[in-house]
## 1
Amino acid sequence: MKQNKVEHGANLFDLSKLKNKDISEFVDFSSNISPYGMSQKALETLKNNLDKASIYPDPTYTDLRAAISSYCGANKDNIMIGAGATFFINSFIKLLSPKKCIIFDPSYSEYKKELEKVDCEVFNYELKEETEFKVDLDELRDLAVKNKIDTIFLCNPNNPTGSTITRQQIDGLQKSTGASLIVDETYVEFTDKAVYSSCAVADKNPNVYVIRSTSKFFATPGIRLGYAISSNEEVKQKMAQEFSALWGVNIYAEIIGREMFLDKTFHKFVYEKFKEQRKYLIESLRNIKGIKPFDTKGNFTLIKIENDKVTAKDLYEFFLDKDIIIRDCSNFINLGEKYFRLCFLDEKNNKKIIKYLTEFFGSIA
């Protein structure tokens, strides 16, 4: 299968200019951001502290790291703060400078781009449609051992397939291969963290690194706040010395973060809503003849078009005319022109896209 260069999803700023519409007029099923917005407690606290722009943030982010520690269970001394998950993806790759690394295909494109910058030899572990894009741990372990892999990069749940590896499996994979594991948990909060999150592993195992974002579950991509967990003292020291800028996270991100990580009511609300809507959307998609959704633990699902007359590009353009954005996945490695991805939005919009998909494929059956 042709291996295309993978780009990110829709740029709503470009689309708004192209169609001469405000960004708010689009319904975005491509970005995987929660439709329920940010924590209201965090928002109210921000409103009451807008005057804080005139002071510097705490350079050690003590209260923010304590809030994150309470949220994810990791030792606060093992928590690093940065400007989004991308900061840590780039920084860990530069710092660890892997020579041989495994990445999943299909998966998030930034891993490969950054690995190539440090002249790393990249080995692709193919997630196969015939196995529902699930990970075969024995096969992955054999690939790592056979090729003397020093680093494995995981997105868990994986984007765009939604496939997962449990915390115990990740711990076992590291110990059986001896490789460093960098685990991107951007989407883990949409599933059972007790089963799938590796925070507890990274908190004890110095060869496991967890990266998390606040963009998706907390619906705050604009504040550019991310964090990472590592118990590797040498890595933490080098990160602080070589990559982390003084006051690298602005005071508004700090204020929002301190509140939203402690807002348990908000956490439960978002998780339960997505659990409910994931069930509804997957079951509804399975009832539409001409498409096949794959099981997912994320807040999105990969879907294959099984109708010979239609491609993902056709479907993208159909929805764009209705100011709805889906993710055409034809440029993901190991996928093709028949694949697209939908994230789960609120009940109203989920019902709307099911209605349009049913009408679209019903008209060409």
## 2
Amino acid sequence: MLFWVIAAILTLGASLAVLLPLAGGTKGASPAGDHDLEVYRDQLSELDRDTARGLIQPGEAEEARAEIGRRILRLGAVARSGSTNSTSSRGTRLLAGVAVLAVPLLSWGLYGILGSPDLPSQPLAERLAKNPADSSVDELVARAEAHLAANPSDGKGWDVLAPIYLRLQRFPDAVTAYRNAIRLDGDSAVRQAGLGEAIASAAGGVISADAQNAFEAALKLDPANAKANFYLAVGLAQEGRKAEAVAAWQKMLGQLSPDSPWRNAVQQALAEAGEPAVAADTPANGPDAQQMDAAQQMSPQDRQAMIETMVAGLDDKLKQNPRDEEGWMRLIRSYVVLGKADQARDALGRAVAAFGADSEQAKKFTAFAASLGVTATE
């Protein structure tokens, strides 16, 4: 109802603003022709008096009367024209008035048919309460923020909102959300690792002492937490401890599953460090920190030879224990990194044979090798 009252007032105001100037007429204005006619009559009377006194000749008097008569006739024609124009102007004003009144009436009628005058208003609070599937990311975040403003002790709410802030690159907000989640719902490796990432991201990627403390806290709760391991290695690289960072990343490659989202990040980090991505989870299968430090002092040829020796050792180990799934995948990947496609293909064939061509492991090896560009020999 309030909508219609406001709409009616606005429509009335707009219509009056147009109609009032059109309704104005020429009330109170005396016609200019009346004054001119009186002047011409006075001139005729004066002419008659001058003729009677002999001040003007009869011929001249007749010419003067004729001229005054012509002027009076012209004045009458002008008056008739003005009357016609006035009638036309009134008609125009009437037509314009009808048009101005028709516009709101027509628009109201169309809105009543095509619009939704009975649809209730939907303020922000109601929009935030609708089905999440029908909401945008901004609306979902706003809804969560409104909920937490009213319920600041809801640790679960902070836990849900923190990674969203992180993805939206609202890093200071993410730090606050993670700290609140930890304070209210307790420590977890995921929360501490998320907190460390938020702190580092807010600092432009620098692994500060606060970020390092968070990552180390995550590893105490879960030593295999990939995010914490990766960023701690980044911190080592930032401190100039490149050999230790490379060793940590190489170790991660040996522990990550083939479909881990962190595998690409580790491989990219190793590429930027100028090191081949050779998996290593134990000293027997790859270099440890001391070996990697020694490798930094080698020439490229010697370093390559050392890596090939370690890969050959892994190959020998798998010949003795062919039921090592992760070992076969590390061997295939190592041969690919070394550019030895034939050896990688051979390793794939031996891995499939070790578990059987129809086994789930064989399908896993084939898919993994295909992702590296290696296909089984026909």
## 3
Amino acid sequence: MADLSKHVVHGGSAVPPAEAWVPFEWEEPKLGKQVFGEVTIARKFGVGGSLTSGFWRTSPNAPGSASDGSSFKNIYSAPLGDETACVIDGTATLTVVSTGKKYTVKPGDIISSPKNLEVLWEIDAPFFKKYWCIWNGTDAVPNPPTELTINSIHDNPAEWIEYHFEEPKEGPLVAGELYFIRSAGTTGTMMSGVWRSGKGIAGTDVDEQGTMSTPYTGVLGDESILLLEGEVEVIETESGKKHLFRAGDAIGLSSGMHVTWVSKGPFSKKLWVITRDVLPSE
């Protein structure tokens, strides 16, 4: 049963006040305590499992950085859970330790890191910033993904899928279209992808300006979002409270909390991660 005390709308900016940034500290299993870069939190929890999101950055003044803002060779194995990240600023080379496979990432690239996969990060000076969402559920998934994968927010697959879903009160609805990046994580249910709405895109309620409105209760799970394009208003049904988000903001919606999602025209686009603390077959 959902914990109703966790029914909140989370939000965060990629450019928060200076005091909102704190050193990023974590325990790397083979190396011990690590401190590198700075982090700010947009989402501290979800309805189930361990779910957090926010922004991470390096600079010449950040903990662990070289004087020019680049890093030394830093191993990061996503020990806190599966991580979905999107590069906002800067470039880096990622090397999977077990295979030696290398990837160069740049703004707009989406990095899907399985929990406990050791990756060597080499960041180019002087700055690097990413949005991140980390998920860790209770039960392990059989045959979990084991590869680092890189996609891009600029990908435009031939087949976008209309998003059809069933709301408990409103019934069957259509809201925009999407494609999947990952369909499973290491624990529980984890999915991610890119979604868009606007003029000429399917939706039960889309006006001539491209503004789309839809009721939404997160029936598939908690949703963590990086808004890539446009403006969105999220209205809490119970309280009437309104939240306005712009491109670059992080948004967190709680599974089971009824809201109205309004994507303002002409277009909106988001990177989404949906998580739920049950295995996909349940």
